[in-house]
Amino acid sequence: MGHAHPGRAGPGPQRFSALHTKVAGISQKMLSHNLKSLVRAGLVARSVNPTVPPQVTYSLTPLGADLAEQLCALIHWFGAHTGELFAAQSSCDRAVATSDAGAETGAGAAGG
Fold it and tell me: For 49, how many CA atoms within 13 A lie in the half-sphere containing its CB?
């Protein structure tokens, strides 16, 4: 359920403290807010075990597990095509720079 990699939290129920440790750089308040939103959306189930103190665990619902699978596939696709994506960006940046340089040269000649 981590932001960087959906399957990273591991299978099965997770305690809040374990999730907080696994989701680097998130405050407890923001994690709590996000978990409430995920529970409301039906992606995460919240379970309270009536112990002293109460033990609260979070786990993916079937809908959440399906979404996590799709996100993992997308992350894998980006990883497999990173080189191609960077090459396309570099090619586009060179074309824009060449076009911009030509437009400036042309505008200067037309103005003079």
Answer: 10
Q: What is the mean pLDDT of the chain?
A: 87
Per DSSP, the three-state class of 57 is strand
Q: Mapping DSSP to helix (H, G, I), strand (E, B) and coil, where does residue 58 land?
A: strand
pTM: 0.68
Q: Are 89 and 81 in contact (CB under 8 A)?
A: no
Q: Calculate mean pLDDT across residues 5-28.
A: 80
Instruction: Classify residue 26 as exposed, middle or buried by CB count within 10 Å of its CB (0-12, 13-18, 19+).
Output: middle
If you ran DSSP here, which 8-state letter would residue 26 be given?
-
User: Residue 60 pairs with which residues in a beta bridge?
Assistant: 44
**Tokens of residue 74, six digits:** 């997308």
- Please report, for residues 89, 106, 109, the alpha-carbon distance to residue 96 in angstroms, rounded to integers and kept in the order given: 10, 15, 20
The label of the residue with tokens 């992606």 reads 43
